[in-house]
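Final report, Chapter 2: Outcomes

The project's central promise was a pipeline that accepts a single protein chain and returns its three-dimensional structure in a standardized token representation, suitable for archiving and comparison. That pipeline is now operational. To close this chapter, we reproduce one record exactly as it appears in the project archive, with the input sequence first and the structure output second.
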Amino acid sequence: MKKNNIFQLLLTICIIILSGCTNAQQTTQATENTTVTESIMFIEFDTNYAFINYDTNHLFIGRDTSAFRKLAAKWDAAISGNGNLSIMQIGASHVQGGTFPHRVRRNILTQFSEAVADRGMIFPYSAAVKCNNPYDYKVSRSHDLTLTRNVYKEPAERLGLCGIAVTAENDTVEIGIKLNEPEINFATNRIILLGEARGGIVPLIKLTDIDNNEVIRQPIEVDTILRRYTYDLGQAVDSFRIYLPCSEGQSFAITGVYLANGAPGISFHSIGVNGAALGDYINKCPYFKQDLELLKPDLVIFGIGINDASGNNFDTIAFRKRYKQLIDSIRSVNPDCAFIFVTNNDSFRRVKRSHVCNENAPLAREAFFRIAEDCGGAVWDQFVVMGGLGSMKTWQNNNLAQRDHIHFTRKGYEILGDLLSNAIFEMLLNLSRQ
């Protein structure tokens, strides 16, 4: 089937919320019954890139909109100070790098600055050598830690939601974490360290008080079944150190760090592992659902698929079945969770000394629409928005994509983050008016 025919077929399967969607750059006209959600202002950005299909920047939702109606109501309550809303973006390198998800997080939380809740789940990626870290928090280390990722054929550690671990063994190690987002106050007063101890080690948290004195916190609760170590810091901080006093024969594998502050509002978690595919989260993360209980996401933004569709034998049926497994796992934690599926970006594959267009992208795109229809989810059609098949080359020529023809530059990720943010805002506005 030709690409245009596929596109028309998908558009008949999926509809844009509220057929009379307004342009994402128009302002909202308030009424007497205006909700807080209706006060959303769209993100302004450069619209001079002629190759970007700005007019397709919408969320496409199928017949079942119930999950998104519940999401809109919960969103409005959260930004009114009457509850919490948990958002999780999960993917591979596009998410681990951090720029894309943090742009969306920042767009939401700078607009609703009174609704900043927990910073939520993070991971100290760069505690290991050559492991890239999101720029919105900095990680330091006294020693290099051993890295385990869910992309390994046989991971050495039992992994959880984050799909990754760093392990200290046979030596005392200190890991520093400092929040690095000046526009949002993510100060935390409670930390839940996820990890597995061997040899009786008990990790500690070190911080500096207002008088510049070093303070050491013991865990107030240890749950070795859930692999959680909980610390009450006694004050709100934007930096701390994880102290792992390992001696000979002892080790500690960190699989996640949850930063809490107890405030109502919106939390936005980003989970990503370079090179990860669906099977890596499903088959190699035995504590995935257990860790997910901490987040209880109300909205999951899926960006897993670029690695699934990278080979010559992309099986769309198997792809859809794996997504269903992941969806079922998440809905076992929150049955009302809403899902947004981000279609694969256009990309090229390395063949000998040249790059060739990856023609699996349109197949993956069609699969995402079918998955969304099956589970009552929505699709953000990144593939079409960026220009379709072969468009990655144009993004690269405009300094918006890297030379590997897969990843974007910081500017490119920021544009994508702004576009996705506006598509979400438009959906919320349309639902609040119904």
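Archive annotation: Residues 1-34 have pLDDT under 50 and may be disordered.
This record, like all others produced under the grant, will remain available to the consortium after the project formally closes.
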